[in-house]
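--- STAGE predict ---
source: upstream dedup step, 1 unique chain passed
mode: sequence only
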Amino acid sequence: MQDKMVRRDFLKTAGALAATGLAAKLGAEPQAGVASADAAQDPAKMPRLFAGCCAYSYRAMLTHGQMTLEQFIEKAVELELDGIDMTVYYLKSTDPGYLANLRYLAYKNAVPLSGAACGSSMVQADAAKRAAVVDDIKKWVDVADQLGAAHLRVFAGKLPEGASMQEAVGWVVDTLKAASDYSAKKGIVLGLEDHSGVSQSADVCLEIMHRVDSPYARINLDITHFIPSATQDQYAQIAACLPYATVSHIRDKFDDGTPIDMDRVWRMYAEAGHKGYMSIEYEGDNHGGVPAEIGVPKLIARVKELCKKYSTV
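--- STAGE serialize ---
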């Protein structure tokens, strides 16, 4: 009996200390963390944020043959990344043998594939063209499956001339619903990026999520692209989309060139209990033309610092 009481007291103390550590990371008062020990130990509320990188960050080198995706995997080891996002634009082919080799190389180097990214765009007025987009997404779902990636980024697309926003959202919903029905069978989540065009506001992204209503349709949250509205700035829109966020794409400037308060963003992710990869998408044009070889490691260092500060791992 005495042993059980000692063990019980130890577990309570350990839990309180763990909560204190999490509270300290989030900037809360340690005593407040102790008081909410049970909440802090709730897995749903514990942030797990990992430093990643999209192959797109090295697009100039990948496009001009100065780097291969095999070398990108090796670069991930050199940069001590937690995971990488394979942008499919740079695949040499979709031959099963080639994809299997990439998957094996990633496994051999203990580099998780946080996802893959294709350029499929869903804003199509013609039903036959929407069906073709669904087929294209299915193709890239199969590629992601062969690579061992459980996430695929897709685009909504730009608003066609003469079309209303509500019409365009309807087309995206129809396409994403059909595509996610397919991806669900393979356990692959489709992440709709808040990219330039139809999905550049949180309200539209959330409407699409609510109407598709599938756990396999979520938001590939790029923190740079939201357009401020009269009621929501970029930060408010990021926060609004966090419950649906999958892989996040990270730059340190908004599209208008304004520096992003990265610490503020990470705090929002942590307070939401987010779990996922914070994968940089380096844009040299936004950094005075600084090449990826120099700019990527610098931005990754900042991401690692923030993940260490705000994550429970």
